[in-house]
Write a structure and sequence with these properties.
The chain is α+β, with helices and mostly antiparallel strands. It is built from 5 helices and 4 strands; from the N terminus they run H-E-E-E-H-E-H-H-H. It has a single domain, classed as Nucleotidyltransferase, domain 5, CATH 3.30.420.
Length: 156
């Protein structure tokens, strides 16, 4: 899932969770982040200290926020590759010859369309269709709360 955003604030991150988790049909045990300052406020003895409002959000959804391992190809590399691919497929450049979007809504529509294409074709490494795999994985997800996280919990 690709969600275009204007900023990387805590409120935007929680709004993205409010959009993404119902779309996938539940909450996984862990949510992987690239350890942005929005999520981790400091490190003590090499251990991340999560932003208190991010802790409240993760408790609300029933999942744990975990950080990418710096220079770890299985976590950090995966997170960075996903962003690179999304930008390459959706952001107009001279290389991909995509036309400019006239509105933010057009970009959001392009993101949904691209996700439909990617999620319906067989993944070359996993050998499975992501949409089919998600149907299987939904059986392991935590049930979501009926209401999104109250906005008073994530004001910056």
């Amino acid at each position: 899932m690709v969600i275009p955003v204007w900023d990387c604030t805590l409120g935007t991150l929680v709004a993205c969770l409010d959009t993404a988790l119902p779309w996938i049909g539940g909450a996984p045990p862990h949510v992987l982040t690239d350890n942005a300052r929005t999520v981790t406020v400091e490190h003590i003895a090499g251990m991340p200290v999560r932003h208190p409002q991010m802790v409240a959000a993760s408790q609300h959804y029933g999942c744990q926020v975990v950080r990418c391992v710096p220079c770890g190809p299985e976590s950090k590399g995966g997170a960075e590759a996903t962003v690179r691919i999304a930008k390459g497929d959706l952001v107009p450049t001279d290389a991909n010859l995509l036309p400019a979007y006239d509105t933010f809504a057009e970009l959001a529509d392009a993101c949904l369309t691209r996700c439909d294409v990617v999620n319906s074709r067989r993944h070359r490494a996993a050998g499975q269709i992501p949409a089919d795999r998600l149907d299987i994985e939904r059986t392991t997800l935590h049930v979501l709360p009926l209401e999104p996280l109250p906005t008073t919990c994530w004001r910056a």
